[in-house]
Amino acid sequence: MNELIFLINKVLISGTVLGSIYALGAVGITLIFGILRFAHFAHGDMMTMGAFITFVLASIAAGLGIVAPVPLAIVVLPLAMALAAMMALGIDRGFYAPLRARGAKPVTLLIASIGVTLMIQGLIRLFAGVQNRSFYEGTAKQVFRIDVPFFGATRPIVFTEPQVWMMGLAIVAVLALHMFLTRSRLGKAMRAMADNADLAQVSGINTQLVVRVTWLIAGTLACLAGTMLALDVSLKPDLAFNIILPIFAAAIVGGLGQSYGAIAGGFVVGFAETMSVFNWAILLRPFRGSLPEWVPNDLSIVPTEYKLTVAFVILVIVLLVRPTGIFKGASS
Amino acid sequence: MIRRALSLYLGLFVLILVVGTFMGAPFTVRLCVEAAAYSLIALGLNIQWGYGGLFNFGVMGFLMVGGFAVTFISMPVNMDFWSSEGPFLLFRVLLAAGVGAGLVMGANRLHRLGASARWHRTAQVGAWILAYIIYRSQIDPAAAYIEAEAGYVGGLGLPVLLGWIFGGVLAAGIAYIIGKICLGLRTDYLAIATIGISEIIRALIKNMDWLTRGTLTVSPVPWPVPKPQDLQELGMETAASFIYARGAYLIVVILVVLVVLFLIQRAYGGPWGRMMRAIRDNHIAAASMGKNVKARQIEIFVFGSVLIGIGGAILTSFSQILDPGGYQPIHHTFLIWVMVIVGGAGNNFGAIFGGVFIFIVWSLSANVSQAMFVSLSGMFESWGWGAIPDVESRSLQMRVFVLGLVITLALRYTPQGLIPEVIRRHGDEETKKATPKQA
Fold this sequence. Notes:
Structural class of chain B: mainly alpha
Largest sheet of chain A: 2 strands, antiparallel
Radius of gyration of chain B: 25 Å
Order of helices and strands of chain A: HHHHEEHHHHHHH
Low-confidence stretches of chain B: 431-439
Helix content of chain A: 55-70%
Radius of gyration of chain A: 21 Å
Number of domains of chain A: 1
Oligomer: heterodimer
Order of helices and strands of chain B: HHHHHHHHHHHHHHHHHH
Strand order of the largest sheet of chain A: 1-2
Largest sheet of chain B: none
Largest interface: A-B, 48 and 45 residues
Shape of chain A: globular
Number of strands of chain B: 0
């Protein structure tokens, strides 16, 4: 039975964790794509930037001697999210809005977003250096162990405190976004504009406002996702640059422009990654004696070094079989 | 326009002379060789982006493919490998791959035998899974055996120039597959797919130790011309040997660039180039005129990738080392985009200018930004703020920021680049002058 526990720890929990981070990132990308029609490559670095804002605020809070029953990062998170949202708005004002005003093609905006990526990356490394940091410098991460006293299992199910926060906050964020998009006037305007921008404008929707709100939401979610990732692993400057590819894969798998699709896509990619690097031979261990010799000890689908390729293979399959994504997304 | 280009090139020449006076001739010749190779790569990207309007954010992957190709072709033969069981095991891997490919192809043809759509799809999925299992069952032991017995497969000991050509061929093959999958879909997909492919190529070359030695790196990769060490053995002084050997290499690279420039300049002016620009500017109109848009786009994507692959091979054999850890998207993809955007997309002379100019500025900026930050740190210290911690590694990051700033500013203020594309229209003065000659 320990083998099954191992499966839960390695696949179910890590898959959920990874999936929620991908989902939060992919929602931001897909919202921006739906409204502004360009692939925003700087999103990964907006996540890193958000994580660093949280880190700085948490350090300041620790310096002021603030003590809380939850990690300080969670306490300062709302403030960090607000700051990150303002920064996202500022980036749009500074770099994308002038191009849009000139009537530049989405392609040009995409290249500009690469420029923004490099700028954010350079600035972060310039000010924060290149080393890894941890939110848990002095204190230890709280680890929850749940014993499962069935069928002779001796190992507990293990997960850490930030992982619990992450899943909880991801659910809250998704629900809030859902309420916003379906119940509020602005959210409905956003969906209308994603469907048909010209029609939305002639119907009297303030498209400028919708664009601003989109950036605010994207910045907020990016900050949340980045902070969660940094809490779970560690904070390094190239944190998000490495996961921008799976996030894009998630957004495309879900159908670009579809918020719910992006959430589904995030979990699909997250679980696919953890499942493909899991060594399935472990599950066969109890039957080791009765199995023939030739069954190898390593039955992982891909070696761990190639984890990155999994997201991409899924992306290619989706592009080939259903180019619009699982939920029918924008395609032109 | 021509006057502007000429004055820019003159400025570039003066810049190289100034660099030569301050940094010494051996350094400058090295800089020129690399700059020439980068201008070839910029030409490749210019074909894809400038002529065809296609994204390629996977330049790094194609450079690595070129580097691997030249290493594989030109490194001396590894007798340890050929005298071991390795070749036999690899033959079995090849056989397994062949069987797998056969299975997949067979499943793809199943509908011709009258299988229903659902059966066809199931068979396809099954064939892929089976092919993967067969392949993995052979490659894993073979890789482990070769790594343990012989280190890696070694090279073929063939001439370097053949390696450069092979770099182009290999890059073409990969570009064809990417094009087949992604062209014809939205342009954003191509951007993401190329980034993905380049990361996968990096992961493969880094981890396939049996083929590339991975992070252990392969060196020294041979040159097509005598190396400085060879000249020193003949009794030449150190400095002079570097200048002459690198100078000879430079001549070879410049010859390659000139031949390529001549060919693609002809292609740009000819019907093929006109068709490509028509597809770039309005692919719907071009398709309605009977042009096969997807096939033509694959064609141009492959052509551009060939040049990038050759450029990567030239760079690797010049640096004499294949180091998968040394490839970074910033340096090997985005820098080249800056070259093309700043130089002028769609204009070959612009791309070459951008390649040489941006590369020289980028190479020198390491020293400049370090000097700037060290003096800044000293200033802070004298003000009593304390020095900047690890100033050396941080100052280099300033370059990344400036690179990003240059991209965004160039897109905003000079979207056409320094030497813009010359768009000739019927009725222009230039065309009127040119018409009698053509007639």
